[in-house]
Amino acid sequence: MQQIPLANLVQHVSPKWLHLLKEEERSQWVVLRNGIQHVDETDLAEIVEAVIQEHQKSPFFH
């Protein structure tokens, strides 16, 4: 297992996606089961989507 900041993962796999992330999303730690060398763009898309959703603020209006 390997734990790294999302920014490092994006920079390694697909640097062109880095602009899509806010600073707090970039600093989110992620755990990679098989290490960074086994992550492809499909895996990265799933990870980025999950991090963005986690950091979204969705206020409830009544």
Unreliable sequence segments: none
The share of residues in helices is 40-55%
Oligomer status? single chain
Number of strands: 2
Overall shape: it is globular
Taking Cα atoms only, what radius of gyration do you get, to the nearest Å?
Answer: 13 Å
Helix/strand-derived category reads alpha+beta
Strand content: 5-15%
Adjacency order of strands in the biggest sheet: 1-2
H and E string: EHHEH
Average pLDDT works out at 91
Q: Characterize the biggest β-sheet.
A: 2 strands, antiparallel
Distance between the termini: 44 Å
Q: Kindly give the count of domains.
A: 1
Helix count equals 3
Kindly describe this structure:
The protein has helices spanning 6-13, 23-26, 41-55; strands spanning 2-5, 29-32. It is α+β, with helices and mostly antiparallel strands and 62 residues long. The chain has one domain. The longest helix is centred in the C-terminal third of the chain and has 15 residues, at 41-55. The radius of gyration is 13 Å and the shape is globular. The model has no long low-confidence stretch (mean pLDDT 91).
Structure summary:
The chain is α+β, with helices and mostly antiparallel strands. Helix content is 44%, strand content 13%. The protein has helices at 6-13, 23-26, 41-55; strands at 2-5, 29-32.
How are the SSEs placed, and which strands pair?
Elements: E1 2-5, H1 6-13, H2 23-26, E2 29-32, H3 41-55
Antiparallel strand pairs: 1-2
Descriptive labels:
62 residues, alpha+beta, two-stranded antiparallel sheet, 2 strands, globular
